[in-house]
Here is the input.
Amino acid sequence: MQWVWAQLQRLSSAGQSWFVVSLAGICIGLNAALIAILTEWLSDLKMGYCSDGWWLNQEFCCWEIETDGEGACAAWKPWTKYTAGMWFIYTALASLFAYLAAHLVRSFAPYAAGSGISEIKCIISGFVMKSYLGLGTLIIKSLTLPLVIASGLSVGKEGPSVHVACCIGNVVARLFSRFSRSQGKMREIITAASAAGVAVAFGSPIGGVLFSIEEMSNVFSIKTMWRSFFCALVATVTLSAMNPYRTGKLVLFQVTYDRDWHFFEIIFFILIGIFGGLYGVFVTRFNLQVAAFRRKHLAAYPITEAVTLACLTAVFGYFNRFLRIDMSESLYILFKECEGGGDYDNLCQSTAQWPMVNSLLLATVFRFGFVILSYGSKVPAGIFVPSMAIGATFGRMVGIIVKAMYRSHPTSGIFAACDPDVPCITPGTYALLGAAAALSGVMRITVTVVVIMFELTGALTYILPTMIVLLVTKSVGDWFEAEGIADEMIRFNGYPYLAKNEHAFNIPVSRVMRTELHTLAAAGLQLTAVGKSTISQLNDGFPIVTPDDQRILLGYIGRTELNYVLQKANRGRHVHSETHCTFIPDPSSTAPMADGLVPHLTDPDVIHGMDEDDPLEMSVSTAMDDVLDFGPWVNQTPITVAPQLSLEVVIQLFRQLGPRVILVEQHGTLVGLITVKDVLRFIAATEHASSSDSNVDSVGALQGVLEEAWLWTSECLGSVQRWASNTSSSIQGRLR
Amino acid sequence: MQWVWAQLQRLSSAGQSWFVVSLAGICIGLNAALIAILTEWLSDLKMGYCSDGWWLNQEFCCWEIETDGEGACAAWKPWTKYTAGMWFIYTALASLFAYLAAHLVRSFAPYAAGSGISEIKCIISGFVMKSYLGLGTLIIKSLTLPLVIASGLSVGKEGPSVHVACCIGNVVARLFSRFSRSQGKMREIITAASAAGVAVAFGSPIGGVLFSIEEMSNVFSIKTMWRSFFCALVATVTLSAMNPYRTGKLVLFQVTYDRDWHFFEIIFFILIGIFGGLYGVFVTRFNLQVAAFRRKHLAAYPITEAVTLACLTAVFGYFNRFLRIDMSESLYILFKECEGGGDYDNLCQSTAQWPMVNSLLLATVFRFGFVILSYGSKVPAGIFVPSMAIGATFGRMVGIIVKAMYRSHPTSGIFAACDPDVPCITPGTYALLGAAAALSGVMRITVTVVVIMFELTGALTYILPTMIVLLVTKSVGDWFEAEGIADEMIRFNGYPYLAKNEHAFNIPVSRVMRTELHTLAAAGLQLTAVGKSTISQLNDGFPIVTPDDQRILLGYIGRTELNYVLQKANRGRHVHSETHCTFIPDPSSTAPMADGLVPHLTDPDVIHGMDEDDPLEMSVSTAMDDVLDFGPWVNQTPITVAPQLSLEVVIQLFRQLGPRVILVEQHGTLVGLITVKDVLRFIAATEHASSSDSNVDSVGALQGVLEEAWLWTSECLGSVQRWASNTSSSIQGRLR
Here is the structure.
């Protein structure tokens, strides 16, 4: 009987987290399906409308009706027959969508802008950003994402859909006290949700799990991996049951391949890999320059910027067959094998091969430029699919050229491995490899990309080519010492995040630690003195030392806890300014953890000093007559190290155990204190010193160009304004 | 110019580790191909021989020649036409192979026995087992593995092939001083090699990478993952270029599926998942009981045991069509769709469905028994493929039953989703899911299994069913609180390894630490006193404290270092028994790490106190006239914690930073010391206390049965012996 009861308790306790993860997964799947449906409808709306019902997109409008080559039917009406008119309406609608999206984001949820991957990485590593994953962000980002994609801006919905998924995870989990009370547990749920976000964005559940391991989390735990697995599974099953595209496929650009590759193709694969690596390096560098420029000049005009970009993209993009259509659709077209029907705009015809190469090259170059300008603008904007699109146009171009070479010299030695009866070169697979290379180049992830590509195509035989391409891409990136765009953005924004790459500093922690400390003596302080401490905004907390000169370290108290006790005490009115304060922890109680003060002991990262909210739930201490006892709030076991310990080990401690602060003591005496920010400041200073040796400009080439264009534009606008005001005043003068 | 030089240096430094990893990958691929070819030839040899050349296996003997339904041709001669004769030869050859394998292992490389996964996990986590990954083990294990598989024992070659791959990684890397000098770097190479081992065993490069993350390593690092990725890629490309099966496939049991699954099938998938979970739980428990029995009674008869098992397996297995053939081949047969030709022994005929179910059930039950008895016997023996084979026979049985249900009630509501024109149920996919469930159940890994199954079949649509099955399997395992068989074996063997599952102890480290310490005073000790310390084999090293009563902690010296200096000093003859010894570290030098004494600072796990060999490479200290200075060998920055720190955090420190010892100090004073072994001893004591509450017998049911069988057998043998000696003495008496 007791056994049954114990089993039931175990079940309900384990059940709650399973329930939360399932619920989050289901919501993520539903939300992804809605976003997909809305995106398709809005995208089609730029070209025409359905006469059978305005709410139908082109596909459903023409469902089971005879269509022409491009999928149009009688019920689907283009806006106008004239190309110029279509072009105008297309551009106008694109700009309108961008305006709506930027306006909504600016007015209701500024956090909905951008991709969100960088910020979520920081949140998962322990950085607190209130309401970044809130309900408002969730709603606005879900609504504006289809608008942005339909506006044709060169941005993707995959990054933002990770942010949306994490918002869902956060909102759902917050409903349960077990999670809302523990930041550690919340972070686990957010990690799992990020896996589900990638899973639904790419229809790739295992890819999602790997993404959460390779990119998002910096501490690996089997339990978190398992949660991610489950959440991604539930989300994918939900999406698959919703079947938003009515094709049984989970994403638009899912394809399958029949044919195998040949060993001689490896030389072309290497070429594609090099492209991916260079793409990643340059898009990241240029985009950072644009970001610097944006921060300097465009911070006040987010809506204008988004509308201008959408307008420009539409104006130029309309005339290129690969830029005009939706990116997911173009990926599908580029990935597909030529055989088996459904040629798009003569892409497969060898008669049209050179115009097609031209068109693909233009698409690659234009989109490269637009991605650099658009990623980071103040609308939901990811970089996954745009990168894949650029890689795919480049790859397809290479594929067509190789095919043309084969056609003109079929008996050449290099093509000896080709079977004369079946098509030897499949340009679609080159497009796939190009997409993989560009994605890996810009994000600096490898295993995840292989799995995603594999789950998109199911082509067993293309695992090895994909791995070879990514090997080259990664080597090129390593050569340039490039980091992923998410990490670069974290650094650009100055978030406190320790990147995964390992530095070798060869110095002890004593060289980096802060030595000017604001400590609190364990006894003998008066309330006013303690109160003054909390005014300083620079300290997260205060080491407690013995009142004598030896400064033996006794513990650590966070500023939040200090404030909390002070407020409670002031409210209770048992205290006055001369009340003595003691900070002596109770030696009979062991660590606060053992008292059950921090609720979830099994969480590897919930250790004292990290979860700032939890200690607030402790019972209020009774302020005695003339002594206010802070003892129960003092963390007796802050993480301490010796001053000679090497900085690398301290960085590892920060990364693995996640404390806010590490105290440095020598033989019991406090000598310093170090935080993640101190480490980052030191790294930045080191890198600045080494980069100033070489001839790298602080203002990059692109930023210079932009600055000049900005000057010129403002001058133009200024003269127009002057002319307008002159004219209007002269008109007014005449009228008067 | 300087820049070019710097780049070249970077290249050559990075190049060496790339070179080592590539070389290891190539060797692993070649070795896997050789093992595969040898295994197939030996397996076929049990049934017959090739008249065109004894070195050809059946497939190559009949290459491009007309064959009958089972692949036999005129050139391939069975040993005899009579079933009884065939049975005898089959059994005799199986026993011979087992004898050869067991004899080679026993005589030349005892470490080649078993799977090796458990031991490699310990080695990767920092445990030192000399020559476990040596050249001898590599050669003997590579040679005996084909013999064991051909002997028909219910063991697999996938686990051992991981061990073989790790041996190759170790042997190759040891040739380069950069690796042989650093245990941390060696561990990275071994992790990468384990990935390559799985990659070639299953033809699944990404599966291999995930295996190294999920099962092998307990610290996750992007760099190690990338190494694993590269090593697995090289090994797989090599294997693919060798093409051992001449079919373009990397493993025997690779298949592809055309058809999709239906939602109603989920109920049967859940059944398969439950089977997998139960299989894992019971095979692990029973196998541990067999292992206990083996340790007690069979330790002296490893060869007899292996031969007996092989003989029994052959005697019984010969009459079951699924047990008679090679396990990889039977997996291929069971996984295959029925359509598309190549039916094995009427497996696909609905007329034979009930005999087939019977046969599959028998195969499941028999192999279950044989796996329990065979895994752990003193020959190379893995449990991956046997588990998959058991799961596959069970799954195929379920599939055939479901298909029979559909055939008899095609219009039933449950089958409404079936398209009448195409086959609705594909029993082969049930076999695949069964194999996945059993593999996941016994190893307790999930993501890896999904990827491996996916890479075996390329069936995009079967990712979700596989995930659902593994979800159920994992839940069943969790319910029984089961651990993977590798972790159970580690515990059974008492290796110092902290498993990944997270305990909640709620106690401070002071409750677990050792307080009876053998410390060394920093000054004032005479050489004889120091010399005595090294006699105690119980201490890995000694904390250095101030000579006064305060016992302020100054550092830590390992026993190896202490011995080294003592030997050097004795050899130099500058010392006598009253020589004073000092252990005062030089405060001007920072940590030993900063002196470049530990060569590879970027290694996250090469921190002082872990790599025992490196300090030996330091220049010899000059023993002065009457003072022997141990200062340079003292680690100034051992990892220290406060006594109130919770045990969970200490366990995390051990796992993440990998020190041999953690010192416990209170306000600078040394109060205790803790090692991994102390933690494990505590965990074992806790678990023993809680398990003795419940009614678990220390001698399990199976062990009881075995004990009785053993008694009975020894009695029988004893009476036979007595009878024989009586008879012989009476004969001798008569003759005399």
Q: What stands out?
A: The first strand of chain B starts at residue 48 and ends at 50. Residues 697-736 of chain B form one domain. Chain B touches chain A through 80 residues (CB under 8 Å). Chain B has 25 helices and eleven strands.
